[in-house]
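Q: Could you fold this chain for me?
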Amino acid sequence: MTRRWFRVGLVLIIFASVSPAQDRQTLLPGLLSTLQSTPGFDPIRDPAQYDAVMLDSFDKTLAPALKLYGARSVAVQEGRIAGSAVKVTLFQMLDAPAAYGMYTFNRTAGGEATPILIGAASFQRGNELHFWQANYAVRIEGPGDARDQIAKSLSRNIFGRSQKPPVSAYLPTENLVEGSEKYLLSTEAIDRGAGIDPNRIGFDSSAEAASATYRINGRLAHLLLVLYPTQHIAKKYAEGLNEAGTSPFRKRAGPLVAIVYGSASETMASSILSGVNHQFKVTWDEPLPGLGVGTMLITIFTFIALALVFTTMVGLSYGGLRVFVKSRYPDRVFDRRETMEIIQLKLAQGVTDRQIESDSSSTRN
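A: Sure. Below is the predicted structure, expressed as C-alpha cells.
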C-alpha cells in the first residue's frame, strides 16, 4: 500500500513540474529536432549553428541587426521535402520584443502578408517566408507548399508569449497600413524623410522608437513614435526637437513623442496624432505566489517528505540510543531484571482435564 502511494505521489510531482513548461522558452535543439522530424523532410547535412560571438561568420549583412536587437544564436538547416530543396534559418533572440524587431528588420526589403497567418505575424517575399513567434524569428526558403508545411510544424512547437515592444503597442491601429510597422533602436534606422537629426532622439538615454505608415483617403503619411523611460526625459528631448525646427506635426503624451511626416495635410496629421495617447497604470511587479495545482501538489508532497524524514530520524535515534545503552550498561537503564514482568502462557505444557469436586459431588447426589 505504501509503495502504491509513493508511486502515485511521484507521478503527481512529475506532472506538476512539467505543467508550467508552456511558459518557458523553446530551446533551439528541440526546435531543430521538430524541424528534422517534419513529415517528408530529409536533412542534407547537420545544421550549422552560430552563437552570439559568431554572428559575423553567419552573415556580415545581418550581423549588426542581430547584435542590436539581441540574438542568442542562429541555426541554419538545409534539406529536401517532396523533392524540393529548402533552407530554414532560426533566429533565437533574447526575448519576444527582440524577435519582433528582427522580423520587422527583415521586412524592410518589402513583402506581402501570407494568405494564412503563421505565428504572431508572417509575410512572404519571392521564395522566402518569414514569421515571428515568442523569441524566434524564422526564415524559410523554398517552394510554397514546402514552406507552409515546415512553417506550420515549427509554429506548433514554439512556446512562450509573443509580445511586441511597449513602444509598438502605442502605434494607432486606425488606418494603419498592414506590415508597415518597424521597431527602431538606432539612429541609422531612422527615416531621413522624417526631417530630424537622429542624434537628437536620445537612443543613448534608453529611448525606443517605432514607425508605421497610414493611409487616409488614399493618401499616405508616416508616423515616428519614440518612447522614453520617463515623461521628464521625453519633455527634454521634445524641446530639443522643437528647437531644431523639425516637422510641425508633433505631439508629446507623457513619455511618448510622436512626429508625423510625409504629408502636408494638417487634417491628416491631426487624425493620426489623435490616436497617440498614454495612460499611466499602476501595476504589481512582484509575481504573485503560485496557487496552481502543480505548485500545491509540490508543496504538499514536500511537507510529507519532510515529515517522513523527521520521523525516520527520530525512530533511528531512539532505537540506536537504546541499543547503545543496553550494550554499554546492561541491566542498568533498560530491561532491568527486577523491573521486568513477563507473562508466560506455557503453551508447551500438556493440557489436563480437571473436574470441580463440587460439580462431581452434586452429580452423584
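A (continued): The longest strand covers residues 71-81.
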